[in-house]
User: Fold this.
Amino acid sequence: MQTRTVRPFRFAVQATRATSAAEWRDLARRVEGLGYSTLFTADHYLGPGPASRAAGQPPQHLAPIAAMATAAAVTERLRVGCRVFCVDYHVPAVLAKEAATLDLLSDGRLEFGVGGGWSAPEYRAMGLEFAPAPQRITKLAEVVALVKAHGAGHELAEKGEFVQVSGYSGLPLPAQRPHPPIMIGGGRRRVLSLAAREADIVSISNVPFQPVNADGLTPREEARRRLGYVQEAAGDRLGTLDIESSPYFTEITGDPRAAVARIAQRMRVPADGLLDHPNVLMGDVDGIVERLEERRETLGVNYVSVQQAQVDAFAPIVDRLSGRS
Assistant:
């Protein structure tokens, strides 16, 4: 197994909540001012109701494309992205053009995140067919190829199982060449291998919270297995890849064990071992800095996305690990 080059830390905020244009603009400026690299939105659409409860998702306030464009318009350095576009929620040729347009109008600040979809309840609520995983991943690969071809500027001739786009050249050309950085997210071998070969950022999905999964692996062991899929498929590209993950449960606290106990109760799992779960970050600033440095070494994660509620509390860690202090 190859040795991975240590990549510098980057930090992002994932946010969809704003009740006014002013609130969203102020959030984007604050995220930039606090030193985060990127503001991510999400490609989910359900408001309150039984569908969102079935999907286990909080209500989504903002659709991604307009929110990303607005955030880019009111900032100067902040990168913008969606974590991640679902290929089944968009016409592929339209999504490719939207991505190129966002990159052009943001002066090259787009990170194009894309995935094969995962939420069957959301699909059903929106009247979409939730196809078997192999079909969704095949479509994902074809959409990624289309986005790259659109940015190349030559006449398109993409004729796959799900994507048939031909007879014109892609316009506009994106500002970033040959294309905006592509982020592919997932948790299984096939999609992570695709990401390792074709993406610039590999987003590793949340691992389960059960102490041991069906294959007998702890959450850390499962995260390590997923990194192994990436290492195996990346070849010479490995040192150029950012590995992104989101510690959904993040809290800056002097009493991390009490915070972990609350998570254990919420998730209905034992508290033992949760402090080391790859999607949990609990502790004071020094403790979290140390934990992130260890995870970069052992799990490969150098790109960390935190939730909107943590934007201010997590800022001292961004300062420490991105070289601002």
User: Anything to note?
Assistant: The radius of gyration is 19 Å. Residues 133-152 form the longest helix (20 residues). The longest strand covers residues 110-115.
